[in-house]
Design a protein that fits this description.
Layout (H helix, E strand, L loop, with lengths): L10 E4 L2 E5 L6 E6 L4 E4 L5 H15 L6 E3 L5 H4 L9 E5 L2 H4 L3 H13 L4 H9 L6 E3 L2 E5 L4 E6 L9 E5 L5 E9 L15 H12 L4 E6 L5 H15 L3
Helix pairs in contact: 4-5, 6-7
Length: 242
C-alpha cells in the first residue's frame, strides 16, 4: 500500500500501518489501512486535534474516511477528538462505554484536561459531545478491514480499568499498547489505575505480540519486547506485585 506517511508528519511502522505523535502531551494515534476499512487507534485531545487528524488521514489515503475507531483507554488526551469522525464505528474495552456516557465522568475528564493545560472552552466542547464506544470488547475482537484483519484485545486492567490494545499482523506485528507502556517517561498511575493487575496486562501484551513485534507506547518512541518486559518488571517492583 503506497502511502507517503512522512509527508503528513506520520511514521510508517509497516505496510499500511502508521502512527503520529501528537504535540502537547506526546500522545500517539495509530492508523491501520485495509482495502475496505480505515481504523484509527485513539483520536487526540480535542475536537480541533481530531479534525486535523481527519484532514491528514484523508490526504494520506486519497480521500478515504475513518470507518473504525479503537479507544485505548478513557483519558482525555486519547478520546476527546472522537466526535470529529462522524459515522465511524467506535470500539472500547468493556465498561468504557458507561464511563464515557456518565455526566460525572465526562465532567471529571473535562476537569482533568483543564488541569493538564487544555483550553477550558476546548475541554468543555469536547466533553459535551464525547462519543462513547458502541462496541465493547471483553476479551478479543477481530475486525475485518478487507485485505487485513486486526485484533482488538482487552488486556487490562492496568493503567486504567479499561485498557484496549490493537494488534496489526504483518511481516512484523505491530502492537498499539496505549498507556500500558510509556517510553518518554515513567508510566503514570492515576486514581483509576489498577497497579496490582498492571504487570499481568503487560504479560498479555507480550503473549499477543511475541518477541519480534514492534510495540507502540501511548507516549514515546516505538519499543521492542525487551523494553516491555523491563517495564513490566519495574512496575511489579514499584507496586510490590509478585
Amino acid at each position: 500500500m503506497d502511502v507517503d506517511w512522512e509527508a503528513y508528519g506520520w511514521e510508517r511502522l509497516a505496510d499500511g500501518v502508521g502512527r503520529r505523535r501528537l504535540p502537547g502531551w506526546d500522545a500517539t494515534v495509530g492508523l491501520v489501512l485495509g482495502s475496505r476499512g480505515v481504523l484509527l487507534y485513539d483520536t487526540g485531545s480535542s475536537l480541533a486535534e481530531g479534525a486535523e487528524l481527519r484532514t491528514q488521514i484523508k490526504g494520506l489515503t486519497g480521500g478515504r474516511r475513518v470507518t473504525h475507531i479503537a479507544l485505548g483507554h478513557p483519558h482525555f488526551d486519547h478520546v476527546f477528538g472522537t466526535a470529529a469522525f462522524a459515522g465511524a464505528e467506535v470500539f472500547g474495552a468493556v465498561g468504557s462505554d458507561q464511563l464515557l456516557s456518565r455526566a460525572r465522568d465526562r465532567e471529571a475528564l473535562r476537569t482533568d484536561a483543564v488541569r493538564h493545560g487544555l483550553d477550558p472552552v476546548a475541554a468543555a466542547e469536547a466533553a459535551d459531545v464525547l462519543v462513547a464506544p458502541r462496541h465493547v470488547v471483553s476479551g478479543e475482537w477481530t475486525l475485518d478491514l478487507g485485505d487485513r484483519q486486526v485484533l482488538l484485545a482487552n488486556v487490562g486492567p492496568g493503567h486504567t480499568g479499561h485498557d484496549l490494545a490493537l494488534c496489526a499482523p504483518g511481516s512484523r506485528e505491530v502492537v498499539f499498547c496505549g498507556d500500558l507502556v510509556e517510553e518518554s517517561g515513567e508510566p503514570q498511575a492515576g486514581p483509576d489505575a489498577v497497579p496490582s493487575r498492571w504487570p499481568d496486562a503487560l504479560d498479555r501484551l507480550l503473549s499477543l505480540g511475541g518477541e519480534q513485534a514492534a510495540y507502540v507506547p501511548g507516549h514515546g518512541a516505538v519499543v521492542d519486547a525487551a523494553f516491555v518486559r523491563g517495564q513490566r518488571d519495574e512496575l511489579a517492583r514499584r507496586f510490590g506485585v509478585a
